[in-house]
Amino acid sequence: SPHTARMKKKQTKMSESFAPEKIERNHATMDYCRNFLSIVAGIAAGVLGLTGLWGLGVHFLCSVLISTALYLKAGMDPSYFISLQSLFLGGLTSGMGSYILVWTMAYDIVHIYG
Question: How far apart are CA 32 and CA 11, in angstroms?
Answer without folding.
Answer: 35
